[in-house]
Amino acid sequence: MRLRRACRCGARTRAGTPCQSPAIKGKRRCRMHGGKSPGAPRGEANGNYVRGRWTQQTIAARGSVRALVKMCRETLRDL
Ligand SMILES: [Zn+2]
Residues with Cβ within 5 Å of ion ligand 1? Predict the structure, then answer.
């Protein structure tokens, strides 16, 4: 049966055990534990936002700068 082998929800219950209800399709939590929710808002809309140092955008930008620096170093070393 399809429901039987569905991904199980891992949310912690009040008893301390995992919830084990079938998770929403493509998600890891059941309908009772936020499976339908798209998650917390991104960026400044999130209450925990500080200065934007860790937004996905900033992290990606840092990654590309790092790649550029690495490339420069390698080029310089070859000279
Ligand atoms: Zn659950």
Answer: 9, 11, 19, 21, 30, 32-33
